[in-house]
Amino acid sequence: MSSPNANAPNHVLHKPYQPKQPAREAIAQFHEVLGQRRSIRDFSDRPVEQELIEWVVKSAATAPSGANKQPWRFVCVKDPMIKRRIREAAEIEEREFYQRRAPDSWKRDLAPLGTDENKEFLETAPWLIIVFRMTKTDEGSGVYYSEESVGIATGMLLAAAQVAGLATLTHTPSPMSFLGEVLDRPKNERAYMLIPIGWPMEECQVPEAALIKKPLEEVMVVR
User: Fold this and answer.
1) Local structure of residue 99 (DSSP, 8 states)
2) How confident is the model at residue 7, as a pLDDT?
3) Which of 72-86, 93-107, 181-195 is least confident?
4) What distances in angstroms separate CA 21 from CA 26, 32, 217, one per listed residue?
5) What CATH code is carried by the domain that includes residue 142?
6) Pick from 25, 21, 3, 24: which is nearest to 13 by CA?
7) Which domain holds residue 60?
8) 171: in domain
9) CA dihedral 154, 120, 43, 183 (to 10 degrees)
10) Which neighbouring-strand residues pair with 14?
11) Are 162 and 33 in contact (CB under 8 A)?
12) How many angstroms from the chain centroid is the CA of residue 84?
């Protein structure tokens, strides 16, 4: 049976991806790769070539989006002075969070992870990728489902980095408006997530609590 869109204007024939091994083996291998992803805070200062970062961003930018508006911008920072400014501004917000804004329940949940207001990784990671969500296009037209679209693209970015062997951290200082100011972004771009990316430091350690993932029966429902 032909596709209902077979004769629709401005449509082209879909060429589906065909894995080189059976589907079960392909997805099991992908799961094994993603299953080793960890949020790390101890980055090596070993350089990461820009081409790798470009491939990671290009992979993220293949994400689906509402009406294909692609409401994302990935600002990739390697300049040490800009990274220093980002760290200084982030730590101001983080001190306010830990000392005043965070409720006790949140602090208890964070305690096993050993996080605090010190964000040294914002300088030691060779790259910072700041994901911005666009509230309208550069031309001024509307965008649709921007939160969902950028969330999907961010997840794909993290997966692409993992496939390349790079380590990442999802960092969301609140509020994040300082990132738009430091990076001189237009008003139609809102900071969504700050992702340090690079190689993990040798002997890098991660919180044991972070290794525990819910079993399939807790996250999947079949009807």
Assistant:
1) I
2) 64
3) 93-107
4) 6, 15, 27
5) 3.40.109.10
6) 3
7) 38-201
8) yes
9) 40
10) none
11) yes
12) 20
Residue pair 197/168 in contact by the 8 Å Cβ criterion: yes
The length of the chain in residues reads 223
End-to-end CA distance of the chain: 28
Q: Output the DSSP codes for 131-150.
A: EEEESB-TTS-B-BSHHHHH
**Is residue 16 assigned to a domain?**
no
Tell me if the bond preceding 175 is cis, omega within 30° of 0.
Answer: yes
Give the C-alpha separation, 13 to 71, whole Å.
Answer: 25
pLDDT digits (tens, 9 = 90+) for 66-89: 999 999 999 999 999 999 999 999
Question: 103: which 2 tokens?
Answer: 């409720």
Question: To the nearest whole number, what is the mean pLDDT of the chain?
Answer: 93
Spatial neighbors of 57 by CB under 8 A, at least 6 apart, are: 74, 76, 129, 157
Domain count, the chain: 1
Nearest to 178 by CA among 166, 162, 160, 190: 190
The CA distance from 77 to 94, in Å, is 20
